[in-house]
Design brief:
mainly alpha
């Protein structure tokens, strides 16, 4: 079944979900998610063997929390890691 077919869209809607796909002629809609998935695969998944699904979840969770959120610079956040960006954002909101 194609993920964008009417039957799948109807089933998602019945569960209270909505299909999130790129609009026709607009390939940039999913660019950020696709870039994130590429980084995740390059840095954590490719070439690694996990003992179980839970082991994979632990490794990926550690990468997200310790590297992606705390160390990695994000151009969309002014080349700051998300944790630092959020701290500065909250300071500005408190003023």
């Amino acid at each position: 079944m194609q993920y964008a077919c009417a039957a799948n869209a109807d089933r998602l809607e019945a569960c209270g979900l909505r299909l999130n796909i790129s609009r026709a002629g607009n390939p940039d809609d999913n660019a950020k998610a696709e870039r994130f998935m590429r980084a995740l695969k390059d840095e954590e998944v490719n070439g690694k063997t996990c003992a179980s699904l839970e082991d994979a979840r632990r490794h990926i969770g550690a990468l997200l929390e310790n590297v992606y959120n705390r160390d990695r610079l994000h151009s969309a956040l002014g080349y700051n890691p998300p944790v630092e960006f959020e701290i500065e954002f909250r300071k500005l909101q408190a003023v």
